[in-house]
Amino acid sequence: MAANHKQMIERLLEGIDSRNIAVMDELFHEDALMDWPQFGERVRGGENRRNVYQRIPTLPKVAPRRIFGSGELWVAEALLDYDGSKYNAIFVFEFRDGKIARETGYWATPSEPAAWRAQWVERL
Questions:
Q1: 3-state DSSP assignment of residue 3
Q2: CB burial class (10 A; 0-12, 13-18, 19+) of residue 61?
Q3: pLDDT of residue 1
Q4: What is the pLDDT of residues 23-51, one digit of tens each?
Q5: What is the DSSP code (8-state) at residue 113?
Q6: CA dihedral 59, 60, 61, 64 (to 10 degrees)
Q7: CA separation (Å) from 54 to 51, 70, 120?
Q8: pLDDT per position in the chain (124 positions), as tens?
Q9: Cβ(90)–Cβ(77) under 8 Å?
Q10: What does the pLDDT read at residue 123?
Q11: How far is it, in rounded angstroms, from Cα 35 to Cα 20?
Q12: Dist. CA 42–CA 44, nearest whole Å
């Protein structure tokens, strides 16, 4: 099942990257939740998810970094590019009965590192 969960997340990220949001309907439970804590929002259920994603002005290009997890809890790290505006993103996926039951997404804009710590860190 673990490989299947990873493949499902890969398929989701590829679908968003290619602007194929219909893939979400096959991967998410109809009653799935999508939580966006930094906005204080929750998208409840398939109808609301479809309405939100059909109206997003621009879907990002998605560059996955890594996907890992076990059992019913998985995490994906990715770089999202919204027409030049880039965000580092973390998505936490909770599965139930072979589909995504909950996705929690966090986005952060890249920023310049502090010069004072340059001698002790590696630049990615």
A1: helix
A2: middle
A3: 60
A4: 999 999 999 999 999 999 999 999 999 99
A5: P
A6: -120
A7: 5, 31, 45
A8: 677 999 999 999 999 999 999 999 999 999 999 999 999 999 999 999 999 999 999 999 999 999 999 999 999 999 999 999 999 999 999 999 999 999 999 999 888 889 999 999 998 7
A9: yes
A10: 85
A11: 21
A12: 6
How far is residue 55 from each of residues 41, 48, 91, 119, measured CA to CA in Å? 16, 11, 21, 45
Q: Which domains does the chain have, with CATH numbers?
A: 2-112 (3.10.450.50)
- What the block records as the tokens of 102 is 């909950």
Are the beta carbons of 105 and 34 closer than 8 angstroms? yes
Rg from Cα positions in the chain: 16
Of 46, 19, 24, give the one whose Cα is nearest residue 91: 24
**Pair of tokens at residue 101:** 């039951």
User: Coil, strand, or helix at residue 93?
Assistant: strand
CA distances to 2, 13, 56, 98 from 7, rounded to whole Å, are: 9, 10, 25, 11
